[in-house]
Design goal:
The protein is built from seven helices and 16 strands. With 300 residues, it is of the alpha+beta class. Strands 7, 8, 9, 10, 11, 12, 13, 14 and 15 form a nine-stranded mixed sheet that branches. β13 and β14 form a beta hairpin. Bound molecules: pyridoxal-5'-phosphate. The site of pyridoxal-5'-phosphate has 14 residues, from α5 and β13. Pyridoxal-5'-phosphate binds next to α5 and β13.
Length: 300
């Protein structure tokens, strides 16, 4: 399912650097590191019921990504939180909003890749939009991309960076095949994640997900594993081959943008559940409850 323009977002106020700007004026410099080299880190967050879900976990991952990239002049957690609150308040968003939080290495004194050219500190962008979960209730069809998901051998997928070419090439392969998203493999040929989400499968009552070696260790992924533990559902992180996932009883993806989404076909193989109950539905119910009750309350 392709996202469409939402006119509700015509008049957004967007935080760039130290203040809010109307949508048409919210810009970074052509000298900004995000333009020069995709040299930025990001998070996607959701607002439910007057709360920001898993805010501290997202901010912690942002700071860890920035540390791994040796950013200088990183704004404090308090500054970032305040910028998020101010942005949501200015847009009167207390529900059904998605926040794209970006921290770039900042503006350079001249073009070039050398981080020593960055002498002004980081640029913070808080882009909050009205956005429902992006995948439809019918679920998604995947194809396997030929491009492999980055492993620590090349570029550690634990850094949530803006250099998304690896994922975008996989997404292009999915678009050409008329699929919703692409399944990506690691360097050994095991399933890692999709171009945008983590992946889970259920087989004979056990929940499986790949080790977080060549995928982002997603916050939704972590919540799903915690739900499994809480409800006594057997689960394991393991290497998963394509043959295993084609023959799973249920497959679903997880991520802030799309929450938990059923996968109904992979590479032309239908995912068939011989059981009358759905473990995905059970986990989904628990996840929805978490989003309505957990999270940092908005101060307005
Ligand atoms: C490649 C990739 N995998 C997985 C996820 C899901 O992570 P989370 O559950 O923290 O949103 C994302 C989200 O940005 C992502 O970009």
């Amino acid at each position: 399912m392709q996202q469409q323009y939402n006119a509700q977002n015509d008049h957004l106020l967007i935080w760039v650097g130290n203040q809010l700007y109307p949508r048409a004026e919210a810009k970074v410099s052509v000298f900004d590191s995000s333009v020069q080299g995709g040299d930025a880190v990001w998070e996607g967050l959701r607002v439910y019921n007057g709360r920001i879900f898993a805010l501290d976990e997202h901010l912690n991952r942002l700071h860890e990504s920035a540390k791994a990239m040796l950013f200088e002049g990183v704004p404090s957690l308090e500054f970032i939180k305040n910028a998020i609150f101010e942005t949501l308040k200015a847009n009167q968003m207390r529900n059904q909003a998605h926040i794209r939080l970006t921290l770039t290495r900042g503006e350079k004194i001249t073009s070039g890749m050398d981080p020593r050219l960055n002498q002004k500190g980081c640029t913070l962008i808080v882009l909050a939009e009205w956005k429902q979960p992006v995948y439809g209730s019918a679920g998604v069809r995947l194809i396997t991309a030929s491009v492999r998901r980055n492993s620590p051998m090349n570029l550690d997928s634990k850094i949530h960076h803006n250099n998304l070419i690896n994922n975008i090439l996989a997404k292009i392969a999915a678009n050409i095949a008329n699929a919703d998203d692409a399944l990506m493999l690691d360097n050994y040929g095991f399933v890692s994640e999709t171009n945008a989400c983590n992946i889970f499968m259920v087989k004979n009552g056990t929940l499986y997900t790949p080790h977080a070696d060549a995928c982002l260790p997603g916050i939704t992924r972590k919540k799903v594993l915690a739900i499994a533990q809480q409800i006594g559902l057997p689960f394991a992180e393991k290497n998963i081959s394509l043959t295993e996932i084609y023959n799973a009883n249920e497959v679903f993806t997880t991520g802030t943008m799309g929450e938990l989404t059923k996968v109904w076909e992979i590479d032309g193989r239908k995912i068939e559940n011989p059981h009358t109950t759905s473990i995905l539905q059970l986990i989904q119910q628990h996840f929805t409850q978490l989003t309505q009750t957990e999270g940092e309350e908005l101060p307005f």
